[in-house]
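Backbone-to-sequence.
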């Protein structure tokens, strides 16, 4: 059976629908164009920025290299100074060294060289230099006198920084910077003599301190500030000497208990490169003498007979 061929009907959309479809297409096309333009502008700006940075770096190459070089030099100097400080801490001599640390007998003679080439066998002290108030230093020592000397004309040698050219009275004659001696036995008092040489040779460079007890530990501190020498006995100032001229420092050795020494014991001979204040002085007295055997001497067999028991005797003015 043959059916007749039928043609599809020609459907014509309303004009309003056609207009809406056209508007939607136009909107999509415009949106795509806007997005494309946005990416194009961003890429252009990025390219311009990269070019500007490269141009800036190229135009400032010398300045940048110079700044980097300065930073490297500063860092190197900082590390070098830090290394010098660390090495100095371990290898340079202390500003406040112990000459004798611990207990030794008054007859144990020692000489401590001031030669840095001798290494640990020397005990160097730094001379006072360019201090705000002028020359200043402090010496501290503990002594225990068993008996006074039997010769009424001779001093007993505790220590000095100087020479060993003894005079008839057993005091060294050339250099005492300072020197500490026990006065001869006169039968009515016990005294010590502190000598500090100056550039003036008039001889007014010593100070005698009386009423030093025997068979008790006594701390003696010699404190120099400019031309004023103060002597403290057990933390109490017991004498002051206004030196007639500038104190004379020397490079001689430190001599301890030479020339026969003295009948007793010595503990903690120490040097300070500055003038101690009263708090530091009282702190030394508070802790008392060190009764442990020194590497430079022999411990006294009479330690058990010492009268030092941290009593009130050393807090009272002598």
């Amino acid at each position: 059976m043959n059916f007749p061929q039928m043609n599809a009907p020609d459907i014509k959309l309303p004009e309003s629908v056609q207009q809406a479809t056209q508007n939607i297409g136009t909107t999509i096309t415009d949106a795509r164009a806007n997005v494309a333009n946005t990416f194009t502008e961003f890429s252009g700006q990025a390219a311009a920025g990269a070019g500007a940075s490269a141009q800036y770096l190229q135009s400032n190459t010398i300045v940048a290299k110079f700044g980097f070089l300065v930073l490297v030099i500063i860092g190197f100097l900082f590390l070098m100074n830090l290394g010098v400080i660390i090495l100095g801490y371990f290898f340079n001599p202390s500003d406040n060294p112990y000459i004798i640390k611990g207990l030794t007998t008054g007859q144990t003679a020692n000489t401590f060289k001031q030669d840095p080439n001798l290494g640990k066998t020397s005990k160097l002290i730094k001379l006072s230099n360019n201090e705000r108030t002028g020359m200043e230093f402090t010496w501290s020592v503990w002594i225990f006198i068993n008996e006074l000397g039997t010769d009424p004309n001779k001093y007993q040698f505790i220590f000095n920084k100087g020479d060993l050219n003894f005079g008839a009275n057993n005091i060294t004659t050339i250099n005492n910077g300072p020197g500490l001696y026990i006065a001869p036995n006169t039968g009515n008092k016990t005294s010590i003599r502190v000598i500090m040489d100056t550039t003036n040779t008039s001889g007014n460079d010593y100070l005698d301190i009386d009423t030093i007890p025997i068979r008790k530990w006594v701390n003696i501190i010699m404190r120099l500030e400019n031309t004023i020498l103060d002597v403290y006995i057990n933390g109490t100032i017991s004498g002051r000497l206004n030196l007639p001229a500038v104190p004379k420092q020397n490079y001689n050795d430190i001599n301890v208990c030479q020339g026969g020494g003295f009948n007793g014991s010595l503990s903690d001979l120490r040097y300070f490169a500055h003038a101690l204040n009263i708090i530091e002085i009282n702190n030394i007295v508070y802790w008392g003498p060190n009764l442990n055997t020194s590497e430079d001497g022999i411990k006294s067999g009479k330690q058990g007979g010492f009268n030092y028991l941290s009593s009130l005797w050393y807090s009272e003015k002598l």
